[in-house]
Write a structure and sequence with these properties.
CATH class: Mainly Alpha
Number of helices: 3
Low-confidence stretches: none
Order of helices and strands: HHH
CATH superfamily: Ribosomal protein S20
Radius of gyration: 17 Å
Shape: elongated
Helix content: over 70%
CATH topology: Methane Monooxygenase Hydroxylase, Chain G, domain 1
Distance between the termini: 54 Å
Number of domains: 1
Largest sheet: none
Length: 86
């Protein structure tokens, strides 16, 4: 256990950030699964709406550096390709 007050605070802050980041990552994964299910079911109208939401979530996460910007770009590209091929 750290002795300095700043170290104790750092642990508290890191824990809060970690939990927030996990929440955002789970939200992204949930929406991607939803999108893939819609594409598999050939429900393209709803898939497009979900794809826009996924893009938004990925962009926001990349902007906050929760995920790397290149990772967000790669995922967006792959999802867009999947949407077009369906």
């Amino acid at each position: 256990m750290p002795q300095k007050r700043t170290s104790v605070k750092r642990i508290r802050v890191d824990k809060k950030r970690h939990e927030r980041n996990l929440k955002i990552k789970k939200e992204i994964k949930k929406e991607i699964k939803k999108f893939r299910a819609l594409v598999s079911a050939k429900n393209l109208a709803e898939a497009k709406v979900t794809l826009r939401k996924v893009f938004s979530l990925l962009d926001k996460a990349a902007k906050k550096r929760i995920i790397h910007p290149n990772t967000a770009s790669r995922r967006k590209s792959r999802l867009a390709t999947r949407a077009l091929s369906a």
